[in-house]
Amino acid sequence: METKTMKTMMLVVFIALLGLAGCRSDSALVTEAFGPANPLFDQDGDGIPDNEDSCPSVANSGNDADADGIDDACDKSVGGSSDIDGDGVLNGSDNCPTIANPSQRNRDADLTGDACDTDADGDGVADKIANSDGSFSVKSVASGGDNCPLVPNDGQADFDGDQVGNACDTDTDGDGINDKTDKGDGSFESLAASDGGDNCPLFANPDQADADGNGVGDACETDSDGDGLPDGADNCPSIANPGQEDLDNDGEGNACDADTDGDGIADDNALGQPLDNCPLVVNPDQADTDGDGIGDVCDLVNDNEYACGVEGQPFTPMLASDTDIKAEASKDLSGCLLGLGLICEVQDPANVVDGDLTNTATLQNTDLLGLSTSRLKVAATTGFAYPGANALGIAFNESPQVLQADLLGGDLIVRTSLNGVIQEESTGEGLLDLDLLGASGVLGGTSTSFLVFQTEKRFDSVVIEFAPSLLSLLNEVNVQAVCASKTDLAVD
User: Fold this and answer.
1) For residue 383, what pLDDT band results from cuts at 50, 70 and 90?
2) Are 300 and 452 in contact (CB under 8 A)?
3) Do the domain assignments include residue 395?
């Protein structure tokens, strides 16, 4: 009897244990066995967490032909293995799945082929209009369309007024003498006077008179700034500006106009410091809602709301698993001094592109004389280029106040580049100064410190350079991620 009672009690205990185990089987027990659940689990390795991925088991193509929110790669109503436009390229790989384009030409190296890209060269000026039936129509120059649809020319300079921009006009001044040749691939090459090219490419001189035989036509011999225009016809005679861009049409070229947009606010103050918070967009009221120093009319993002890797936000981290870019991180120690017990290194550069948004790549530099430089580069390796209208965000572990101080002091420099050529940088020494937006935000759902820069030029790589000085409060910088939008941003 006692044995039977004991067996019964043991059975009850066993059943209770099973019940407890069952209750914990989908959480606690799994956590104990395999570690904490990863909210950024990405089973198809395409850089999109499963909880945000419309195709969690198939790498996304970036296309959604029927606009139903499901990527074509796993949309049964479209099918990544189908070819709905009949151009010989399957939907899952087609950069224009509904418009036939067998060549897949993609001039600006974004996610959309030229045939269905409303801004094929990525210069911010539309060349096509998307119709409601899925087709596209050319946007005429007269209605604001791009006068060089396959050559970036955001200034739209057109010296001879023939509705063909200088950048792609083989006879820029319209005098019947060509100054460049069309290579047939969307690019152009200058034609030297010695090869029969125009000896005054920006000033009509069909006779090509050149009394001194120096290769420069008599009509533009007095050219102080060397931009091909005689001083008398140059809207900036002392500053080279072959495009002759004049945003406010006041007769003074942008290159030498103190108030480029003509809104009554000078671009810079007497000390050369920025004054107009939107120097290329008229805004006499200088409204700046988020107080980031960039006026509302040209501010692409509220820096207090910057979020990367969050559903519904355009900003995504540059990751090796992202099939669009296949990001690669590398270090450059060529600027490091040797000896003297100095530390100049970049530890774990791959951490910044590995998909774990909590780990970091660390730039180390103990040379406080500013003579030693360590660099971390994150680059797209697929040929993809990010659009220029962007907000580049770099997530750090450090205090945003300290980071901004080091940035403004020149100890920390951020650069963008395209095909190896610097486009913009935080010191203003590139083609255009990066505009600093803010230093706080969200990365994958977790608050972090961001330095965010508004860009205007396309880029395929980002370089972070660290050269601390005596005034620096840091000897190492920890970078979690580099974020950007793969599509153009627009002012709200």
Assistant:
1) very high
2) no
3) yes
